[in-house]
Amino acid sequence: MVVSTWNLPYEQFSPKDKERWPTILTNIVSTLSNEIHSLTLSDGTLPSGESKEKNTAKIEEGKEIIRALSALKHDMGRNKALQPILADGGSNVDCYNQHLQRLDGTDDTWFTAAWLFAECYLYREIRTLFAKTRFWNQSDPFFSSKEETYKSSSTAIIHLANSLLALDDRKDLLKDYEESNSALEIIFLEMMQAALWGNATDLSLLVDLKYEDLQKLQAVGAAAQAENAKFILRNDFSKVWDHIKGQKDARVDIVLDNGTERLGVTAY
Asked: Is residue 253 a contact partner of residue 192, using CB atoms and an 8 Å limit?
């Protein structure tokens, strides 16, 4: 049996865009700088009403995180070796460090290590920088960008919510639903695509996403779905529908994997 495989256009250790990780770090530094600036202009107390001394301590901790992020970006730009992650009381530190020990010196730098490992390592290292502080250990450096993207997704969110609400009382959709191209099948396929492409706006993958790009990516409707379908590497939606429509009194779980833009459906 001859097996045909798809050859990746880039090796696993050669990221297509070497500005991706520096951009992520730059955005975090910008977010922290804005927060520190606000603290500096405040009335001398933390949001919780703590003392001016603690406010000052938080500012200094923030500046230290910025210095560490800048050093990380410096090492990244010079393709230096990935360093062991310091214990911070969190999980998976040993897991990352044990893997680093297994690298042989030819695949242990930022741009020679496997891309996915280096990507995950970066986020774990960022988490450590925050976790080891007193006043920033619960901070999410990506919150503001998440919030902004959520707000800019409101058009798609409202459309889908209204669509689902309208479908709730549509008992007529069950008529002849097992037939090819039934109304229920068409609706199912559209909803699956909407779920898939809504998930594609994961900010960790689209660090330079512009507002108009987001709107286009999350566009809804038959024409938009048909246009987006050509970007799906493997599309088994029809097979999923053939399986689901034969189920009786079954539960359907839909799993979104926002790391690789996969959508899995299990019926049982």
From this structure: no
Maximum distance among all alpha carbons in the chain? 74
Could you give the CA distance from residue 160 to residue 191 in angstroms, rounded to a whole number? 8
| Burial grade of 58 (CB within 10 A; 0-12, 13-18, 19 or more) | buried
Query: CATH assignment of 20-141?
Result: 1.20.930.60
Model pLDDT for residues 72-129, shown as the tens digit of each residue = 999 999 999 999 999 999 999 999 999 999 998 889 999 999 988 999 999 999 999 9
Task: Identify the DSSP state of 224.
Answer: H
CA pair distance 245, 145, nearest whole angstrom: 39
Cβ proximity of 13 and 115 under 8 Å: yes
Buried b (16+ CB within 10 A) or exposed e, 181-208: ebebbebbbbbbbbebbbebbeeeeebe
Assigned token pair, 105: 């010196």
110 and 80 in contact (C-beta within 8 Å)?
yes
Tokens of 256: 């979104």
Q: Token pair of 36, please?
A: 């520190």
Global pTM value? 0.68
Beta strand spans in the chain (E): 252-257, 262-267
Domain with CATH 1.20.930.60 in the chain: 20-141
